[in-house]
TrEMBL record:
<keyword id="KW-0520">NAD</keyword>
<protein>
    <submittedName>
        <fullName>UDP-glucuronate 4-epimerase 1</fullName>
    </submittedName>
</protein>
<comment type="similarity">
    <text>Belongs to the NAD(P)-dependent epimerase/dehydratase family.</text>
</comment>
<dbReference type="GO" id="GO:0016853">
    <property type="term" value="F:isomerase activity"/>
</dbReference>
<dbReference type="Pfam" id="PF16363">
    <property type="entry name" value="GDP_Man_Dehyd"/>
</dbReference>
<dbReference type="InterPro" id="IPR036291">
    <property type="entry name" value="NAD(P)-bd_dom_sf"/>
</dbReference>
<dbReference type="InterPro" id="IPR016040">
    <property type="entry name" value="NAD(P)-bd_dom"/>
</dbReference>
<feature type="domain" description="NAD(P)-binding">
    <location>
        <begin position="2"/>
        <end position="105"/>
    </location>
</feature>
<keyword id="KW-0413">Isomerase</keyword>
């Protein structure tokens, strides 16, 4: 979700939309509390996955993005060793999905 980055961008006056899958790698209740905090500061957080091409296409159709900051990742080296497919799906395929959405957007 990039809560600190999102708050800093809002503080400087930028509009911010975040995407988070709210998976269980970190406590989802902590993430939802952060979403509430961010919402109170004008940050809109979408529950979804950056691998969801339809969701990304819809967001890019609705929101006139000027910049994209990619902070989504499956953290943890140990997790990557135990679950390499999930790690690649989140960190590599997710990046490619987001880059494709950026490329396909009509600025």
């Amino acid at each position: 979700m990039g809560a600190h980055c999102s708050l800093a961008l809002r503080k400087r006056g930028d509009g911010v939309v975040g995407i988070d899958s709210f998976n269980s790698y970190y406590d989802p209740s902590l993430k939802k509390a952060r979403r509430t905090l961010l919402g109170s500061h004008g940050v809109f957080v979408v529950e979804g996955d950056i691998n969801d091409g339809r969701l990304l296409a819809k967001l890019f159709d609705v929101v006139p993005f000027t910049h994209v900051i990619h902070l989504a990742a499956q953290a943890g080296v140990r997790y990557a060793m135990e679950n390499p497919a999930a790690y690649v799906h989140s960190n590599v395929v997710g990046l490619v999905s987001l880059l494709k959405a950026c490329k396909d957007a009509d600025p």
